[in-house]
Amino acid sequence: MKKQNWNNKRAILGRYGFIVVLLMLFAVMVIFSAGKIIFTVEGKKWREVGEKETVIRNRVILPRRGNIYTYDGKLLATTEPLYSIYMDFWADGIEKDTLAKYVEDLSVALAKKFPDRTASQYENVIMNGWTMREKEELRIRENKEKKIDKKVPIHSRYVKILRKDISYVDLKEIRTYPFWNQRSNRSGLIAEERNARKKPFGNLANRTVGSVYKDLEKGGASGLELKYDSLLRGVPGVKFRQKIQGRWMDVVEKPDEEGWDIITTIDAAIQDITERSLREKLIETEAESGTAIIMEVKTGEIKGIVNLDRMINGDYAEGNPNAFSYMNEPGSTFKTVTAMVALDDGVVTPTDSFYVGDGLFQYNGKWVRDHYWRRGQDHGYLTVAEGIAISSNVVMSKIALKGYENNPARYVEGIDRIGLRKRLTWDVPLNGIEGTSSIRFPDDKTNYWSKTTLPWMSFGYETQVPPIYMLMFYNGIANGGTMIKPFIAKQFFDKGKMVENVKAEVVNPKMCKKTTLEQIHQMLLKVVEDGTAKVVASDYFTIAGKTGTAQIASGGAYGGYYVSFCGYFPAEKPMYTIFVGLRKPKGVPSGGGMAGMVFKNIAEQTYLRKARLDVEACKTDSTLHKQPTLKNGRWDRNRSLLSSLHFPAKGPAETADWVKMKYDNIAYRSEAIVLNNALIPDVQGMGARDAIYLLEKSGLRVNLIGAGKVVSQSVTPGQRLVKGTTITITMR
């Protein structure tokens, strides 16, 4: 019995031993296989497959592009994230029944928020996406049967639902809509983020600020955006996406670095004034294009810069950077350069005179003409100062010939001495010859120097100078002879900390002698006081400057005019220098009447906005009437007003209906107006209501101009009255 039990135990132990051996062999095989997978090429292959399913590496984190601001912190350009909205119809948890249940409510909500599609159109887009999935599933099954391995094409997996990209605020809202309020693996909702460049002030300084490519990774395309692209764009980061518990999570490997911010010199208010003033004149004259620039005299900071071109539809918009790139013969604004060179060289004095006669002068077979030559007026002799004031081409050409006919290189050396031939770079990138002056030199083989080049150069022809150079030159006069380069980019900030503060570059510390500078200044004052720019004179401050009218060379001939005005104000203590140029305006070309009036509008509005009176200027004027001025008219109304204000009133007109009111420093006095039905009544000094009442009561027809009180009437008071006559009263 015992032996039998022992045999049974041995059999059982043997079987268990066999099983243990098998399990151990199996474990060894598993360990061997695992080791083989881990440490061989096959292991590397399977790890890559696993990572493809759960990890997406080397995804770029686009940095925030730096902002561009006005000098006082207003945003000119900024970056904001926008989101493209797609649906992934192959998401793990998306189900047809659930989608069909909520698609109508989702579509209604989308149509209400984004009305560029109707609710039915949104429903069609979404359900068509599901239909595409079903067709693709059928194709995949067929391919499997044929043993063809084919992935799901992207166009059938991801369908764009919204036409336009949306903001983060809108994204948060649509995630509350029916069906899309679920997790992304159930709703299929995908928001693809991208950075977009926005300009909160619209087209303000648009061409100067510049633009970026639609694909923001490509960076700046023009203007400041291009010039400082390497600073604005920042440094991209790196991240990878990992699938954890069915959800994709972003893991940052290397954080991005935001771009630098730029503070410009632009003043939004002055920029707006400059643009409106130029645009109004362009519309009035139907010019092809126009440029206006205003800069601070002492700092070189450009406060407003506008470049407007006429578009195909007739509207004006920021186009080419004409302030820097428009290469044309400057015309008469260049005469100041000639005068400065000649005065500094001692060739002439302001009182030296030259015979101009009827404004015609022939030199080497070509005629130099003054603007008045067709009138046949004999101007006799004109001094240098008078020649500048009336913009005489004959005077300027005779000055140049007197001093430099036998040595024209000396004249161009004088221009070099001023600094107008220096090659400069600007905040707005340019190509080729654009952006620098093109002034001929006698020994320069690239530019032909003819026998008539010298006299024609003296009054602004046979040379090309962009507007920014003329602005810089006249600002040098205003700045006591120190020429500084105009600039726009003022400060650079990295993460809120100022990295660089830009100061104006001195192009020439001394353009000419001090005596020459004062003589030029006095001449430019005369241009506005008595010369070609009389219309530019202001009631608020003095202006010094020069007009320019030049024919435009095109295809070997001249066609159209370029009119300009450049100057500074207030002349005795300059604050700002302004250049204005209009290309091909219609009508009689006038540097003063066209460009000069834009200058005046910009200058006056800027001055009145910026002017600050000192304490002395704010003293009470002893001649000021402290009492209000009353209008003539009904006595009962004036008496009631005076009584309510507790002002004394005296006079013989207590019983009169209509009175004239005067104040004699003691009290108001009334003087009766005697009315005669046969004579025209005197309504001067009355308000509109009383004046119209009296005149129409007399049987006259009234034409009213202006507002305020009557300052004149077209028919003299006291004349015989003819009923039905029309009388015009002007009010101010």
Explain the overall architecture:
With 732 residues, this protein is an alpha+beta fold. It folds into four domains: 2-56; 59-263, Alpha-Beta Complex (Penicillin-binding protein 2a (Domain 2)), CATH 3.90.1310.10; 268-610, 3-Layer(aba) Sandwich (Beta-lactamase); 633-731, Trypsin Inhibitor V, Chain A (2-Layer Sandwich), CATH 3.30.10.20. The chain is 36% helix and 24% strand. It is built from 22 helices and 31 strands. Strands 2, 3, 4, 5, 8, 19 and 20 form a seven-stranded mixed β-sheet that branches. A hairpin with a 5-residue loop joins strand 9 and strand 10. The relative contact order is 0.08.
Q: In terms of topology, how is this protein built?
A:
Blueprint: H1 2-39, H2 41-54, E1 55-61, E2 68-69, E3 75-88, H3 96-113, H4 119-145, H5 154-157, E4 158-160, H6 168-174, H7 184-187, E5 189-198, H8 206-209, H9 223-227, H10 229-232, E6 237-244, E7 247-254, E8 261-264, H11 268-285, E9 289-296, E10 302-310, E11 316-318, H12 322-325, H13 335-344, E12 353-355, E13 360-363, E14 366-369, E15 381-383, H14 384-390, H15 393-404, H16 408-418, E16 438-439, H17 453-458, E17 463-464, H18 467-478, E18 483-484, E19 489-494, E20 497-501, E21 506-508, H19 514-529, E22 544-554, E23 557-569, E24 576-583, H20 591-610, E25 633-634, H21 635-644, E26 649-650, E27 658-663, E28 668-672, H22 688-697, E29 701-706, E30 710-713, E31 726-731
Parallel strand pairs: 2-8, 26-28, 29-31
Antiparallel strand pairs: 1-6, 2-3, 3-4, 3-5, 6-7, 8-19, 9-10, 9-24, 10-11, 12-15, 13-14, 16-17, 18-21, 19-20, 22-23, 23-24, 25-27, 27-28, 30-31
